[in-house]
Task: inverse folding
């Protein structure tokens, strides 16, 4: 079986699930090598997962002719420079979210990838899981009629109480919209299509945050980005959605995503996961009822989007978590802050067309 060789750049907290799934679950990829700024992380990943190479630098990885796709797991504010370097080295790139810290940077990366005939895409890939794919099938099959609206909320009081290194969530490229917004917005555009324009309001409720998790307990973070963001989205199909993401609110649950139609309402599972309950309300039922999931990949399947990119590279078909999608989501997120700053409705310029829905794979791990 032909396998696409992957190089992993960055070995932070999220890397563990990627390493596990790319070595144990997805069969058409092979990790060729890894690199992190901390040499001990490089050696630990290499040893634990039986990876052939641990590189001494990013440049050494990019010079390896066997590497076909770079999986970029660096910090958000580093995504632009590291992805650009990989593209200039002739590598396809799959990046963790967001694609870049600004829409202009993301657009530049897309232009560069197209000029060099390279694939560029990225996280999140949770929309490819059983939960949201089941919702897409219900919507596309008319179970809620014509979509007329949606509501999305991600409510929490920040990550400094549990994350071992929470600083970057409050720095350039961070914040609740840039961190968690990609999950909700990627789900929304996959369910409803392209966003035509939007209005946003963004605020910063606290100038500093105090870390209460180890190993940085008691340290103070200066907040550089908005931490409470509200938006109204106008979709090309006529639906209107509201979205709220916040690091400033105490609440008993964090995730809520609902789609409203002319014939019913759909409660979508937490878009930060791959499964979860799908709840459908139709007037003849009088109450929500749970709908069985109709697709695979119900557990934490991070790496699914990368495996899909590898399949696209092998076959020439479109990839589902591609650059057009990640750029459109990036424009939505950054335009919400721009709208708030300029006090006006923003018409978006990025294109977006939904890719094909997932199929029922005959062999698990082969898309």
Result:
């Amino acid at each position: 079986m032909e396998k696409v060789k992957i190089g992993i750049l960055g070995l932070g907290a999220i890397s563990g699930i990627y390493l596990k799934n790319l070595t144990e679950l997805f069969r058409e990829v092979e990790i060729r090598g890894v690199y992190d700024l901390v040499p001990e992380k490089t050696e630990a990943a290499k040893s634990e997962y039986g990876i052939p190479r641990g590189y001494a630098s990013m440049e050494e990885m990019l010079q390896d002719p066997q590497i076909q796709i770079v999986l970029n797991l660096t910090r958000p504010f580093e995504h632009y420079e590291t992805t650009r370097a990989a593209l200039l080295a002739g590598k396809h790139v799959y990046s963790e979210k967001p694609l870049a810290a600004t829409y202009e940077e993301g657009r530049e990366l897309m232009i560069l990838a197209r000029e060099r005939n390279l694939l560029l895409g990225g996280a999140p890939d949770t929309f490819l899981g059983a939960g949201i794919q089941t919702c897409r099938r219900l919507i596309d099959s008319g179970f809620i009629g014509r979509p007329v609206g949606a509501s999305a909320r991600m409510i929490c009081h920040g990550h400094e109480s549990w994350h071992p290194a929470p600083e970057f969530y409050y720095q350039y490229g961070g914040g609740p919209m840039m961190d968690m917004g990609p999950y909700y917005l990627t789900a929304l555009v996959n369910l409803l299509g392209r966003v035509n324009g939007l209005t946003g309001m963004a605020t910063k409720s606290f100038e500093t945050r105090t870390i209460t998790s180890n190993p940085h307990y008691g340290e103070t973070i200066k907040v550089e980005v908005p931490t409470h963001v509200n938006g109204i989205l106008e979709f090309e199909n006529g639906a209107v959605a509201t979205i709220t993401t916040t690091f400033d609110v105490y609440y008993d649950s964090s995730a809520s995503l609902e789609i409203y139609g002319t014939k019913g309402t759909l409660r979508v599972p937490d878009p930060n996961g791959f499964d979860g309950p799908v709840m459908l309300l139709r007037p003849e039922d009088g109450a929500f009822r749970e709908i069985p999931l109709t697709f695979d990949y119900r557990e934490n399947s991070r790496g699914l989007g990368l495996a899909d990119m590898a399949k696209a590279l092998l076959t020439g078909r479109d990839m589902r978590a591609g650059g057009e999608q990640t750029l459109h989501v990036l424009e939505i997120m950054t335009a919400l802050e721009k709208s708030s700053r300029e006090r006006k409705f923003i018409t978006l310029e990025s294109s977006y067309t939904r890719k094909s829905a997932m199929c029922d794979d005959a062999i698990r791990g082969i898309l």
Q: What stands out?
A: The radius of gyration is 20 Å.
